[in-house]
């Protein structure tokens, strides 16, 4: 305290962590949950142990989620695969650094390996570190061809122009800290056409341009050119 007094602090009463059940009960049911399945990178988990942990989580989800949108995600390849095997109600996404960090498990070291893992186990998508999609943009069409959803996370997603670039590249969604700010800023960057515009393609045919058009100012382009090399490295 400012007056020099020292007060006892008890984590159970003063700042307890909520349980998954409490989160389901107290958070607006319209808000979807990304239930990340966290495991220690330094431990080797046996299937029996993973099954026990995941079944405990599923018990709470099935009892409390009701109509709330849910996805599961995990950096742990075996846990992600097993969660997909244990249930088919909710989508499972594989979390990956996409090669921005290297691990002993090769399945964690690239977007290409992430695609292989998802296809082998029937997972619905990938959540990649945002820097990886800028480092390896050619991976995005391959992810789309595999009919997988692609989301990203990371500090780069707190930069509106970087999020908008991902929108243009085909990323399906982003995980951000500053939700209202990024949503508003990116909405301003996306120029929706007032009417369909007819344009001639290279074959001379008239086609409809129904897509949003890039709306970067010269200042924003200059900002991106300065910012990207530093953040993507």
Automatic annotation (TrEMBL):
PANTHER family: GLYCEROPHOSPHOCHOLINE PHOSPHODIESTERASE GPCPD1, GLYCEROPHOSPHORYL DIESTER PHOSPHODIESTERASE
Keyword terms of this UniProt record: Glycerol metabolism, Hydrolase
Known catalytic reactions: a sn-glycero-3-phosphodiester + H2O = an alcohol + sn-glycerol 3-phosphate + H(+)
Record's protein name: glycerophosphodiester phosphodiesterase
Lineage, top ranks: Eukaryota, Viridiplantae, Streptophyta, Embryophyta, Tracheophyta
Annotated ranges, domain GP-PDE: 1-186
GO biological process, one term: glycerophospholipid catabolic process
Enzyme's top EC category: hydrolase
Enzyme Commission number(s) of this protein: 3.1.4.46
Any one GO molecular-function label of the UniProt entry: glycerophosphodiester phosphodiesterase activity
Hydrolase as UniProt keyword: yes
Source organism of this protein record: Triticum urartu
């Amino acid at each position: 305290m400012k007056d020099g007094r020292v007060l006892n602090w008890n984590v159970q009463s003063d700042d307890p962590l909520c349980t998954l059940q409490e989160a389901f009960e107290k958070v607006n049911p319209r808000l979807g949950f990304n239930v990340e399945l966290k495991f220690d990178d330094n431990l080797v988990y046996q299937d029996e142990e993973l099954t026990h942990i995941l079944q405990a989580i599923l018990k709470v989800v099935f009892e409390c989620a009701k109509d709330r949108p849910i996805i599961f995600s995990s950096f742990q390849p075996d846990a992600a695969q097993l969660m997909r095997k244990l249930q088919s109600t909710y989508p499972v996404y594989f979390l990956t650094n996409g090669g921005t960090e290297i691990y002993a498990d090769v399945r964690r070291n690239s977007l290409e390996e992430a695609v292989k893992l998802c296809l082998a186990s029937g997972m619905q998508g990938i959540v990649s570190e945002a820097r990886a999609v800028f480092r390896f943009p050619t991976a995005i069409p391959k992810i789309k061809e595999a009919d997988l959803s692609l989301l990203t996370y990371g500090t780069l997603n707190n930069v509106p122009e970087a999020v908008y670039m991902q929108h243009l590249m085909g990323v399906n969604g982003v995980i951000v800290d500053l939700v209202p700010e990024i949503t508003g800023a990116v909405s301003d960057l996306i120029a929706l056409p007032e009417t369909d515009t007819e344009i001639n393609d290279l074959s001379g045919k008239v086609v409809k341009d129904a897509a949003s058009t890039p709306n970067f100012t010269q200042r924003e382009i200059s900002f991106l050119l300065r910012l990207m090399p530093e953040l993507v490295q």
